[in-house]
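Q: My collaborator sent me two sequences in one message, no labels, and asked for predicted structures for both. Can we handle them in order? The first one she listed is below.
A: Yes, handling them in the order given. First sequence, followed by its structure tokens:
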Amino acid sequence: MATNNTYFIWGEEAFLIDQKIKEIHSIMQEKSGEEVELLYLDGDELSPLRLLEELEFSPLFSWQRMVVIKRPSWLGKSRRKTSRNQEILKVLQDYLQQESPGQTLIITVSEYNGSNALVKLLNKETTVIECKSAKPQELANWIKEEVSARGYKIDNAGLSLMVRSGQDMYYLYNLIEKLCLITEDQTISAKDIEEQLSSRDEIKVFKLTNALLDRDLQASCQAFYQLLEQGEHPVFILFMIVRQFVSLGKIKYYQENRTDIKEISRLTGMKDFAVRRLSGQVHNFSWDEIQYLFEKFLDADIKFKSTSQDEKTIMEGLLIEICSKK
């Protein structure tokens, strides 16, 4: 086996896998003393030829590069030996037998399938890392650390509720961020958490919708790709974005008519904290921009239902439209 920097990382918890990827990337940058290019590839859209082309690295503009392929279907449980999988196997075999100075390849999967020929190859020829799901005490410690890092505390009942919720760590991470933004007291209680656990969908997309309302394109794209990695469908994401902009429009109308927060909350059925947060974002969009964006929302919905355009590409274009000043 040739010397290569290739990792095969597996585990059910996507958050822990992403943390490991960040850790490896950080170590690379520290050792090289320079910026390390980070390239994410969609394994399910990669043909064997394109995979070969992407793995051919020439350090013309960057001396270091990390390539990440997340949860490709060709590492799954399919028993059929498709020609595509066989060709991908050949590409990876050839790649792993040659020197690749300056390049690190990371391939991830949520479930280890030892019968898959590609998995057998990666298990033999790469550094294998299992990201085990956090045990209850480990999860509790992580929650307390994340809450503390934001200057808050969490009571024991609230901590127990989060640990027993059965939610994945990305969901809990977004929940912590939301709770620390909306909780008036410095200690998060079980009651605070219960109110938010009932609105599971809002928590899923909170990071994205909050970034969009701030017109922060970089943060919006990061949150969008994170949702895709967690298995959320673009149609669901669009629905939640539209719902948030409907709420924004209502608050903008009442705010311009000098209605106070408690009355807006009563009229809209929204909680006070949500009204307060959106009240600070309504100035980011004019009425003309809101009308324009609803036309774009409709256009995206029509494209989803009546064209063969890539749904991810449609959403990427929509995020750019939302974050761009008109």
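Q: And the one she listed second?
A: Here it is, processed independently of the first:
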Amino acid sequence: MMVAINHTAQHHLINGRNLFVETYGHADDPALFFLHQGLGSTYSWKEQTQFFAQAGYYVIVYDRWGYGKSDPRHSVITSGFADDIADLTGLVGVLNIQRAALIGHSDGGTLTLYFAALNPEITACIVIISAHIYIELKMKPGIMQVRKMFYENIWFRNALERLHGEKTSRVFSNWYDGWMNPVNLDWDMRPLIRRISCPTLVIQGDEDEHATPQHARDIAEAIPGADLWMPTGGKHLFPQVQPEIFNTKTLSFLKKNYVP
């Protein structure tokens, strides 16, 4: 039976910028962060927030700097996410979180990998969905297809505007310019993520539009003891398109591996 879930929505000043943060559940429950993808927002996790709060977690979702209801941003360096790491670290402090599990999708997954490698004392376990740890050939056609949709598909453009309002064009250009920057060609996270010691679940659909299956295998192989799940027919937006399957698998992993 569904029960009423405590919900808060407010801005927190982190590193000089206002970030929009929502929480679901009770602060004394095990903390669970959800980190959205490169064009997403807190709304991207609408199929997960209530579900995991009902399962007994203190769910925390936020619009990263530049997205949704958070302050605008002029650029994103996708090969490092240094500002995003600093914001997540600051938010953990403001919310007085001592230990947490993190679930990150796409860019949010890459950010999760950085955070877990740099903050092992805080990170209980992580779930990574469709993250990137280096540039591969498949990424460019996928990015160009999204660009075509942004400029030619009014439904897609309107959907982004509902998430980001007047910041929509800047959100898209930050994402596009960030990943198309030639500086990324030498970027490879594998030496860093080998330091991750917490339980890890790597998820990538076998029909992901932005990465080959080998990319997910490389992430799992680089992290000691990581589990790899490649759902048949899964696309890049797997948590949003097939939430029941994603939620069930992820909850099972958390119950087994998350000891607050």
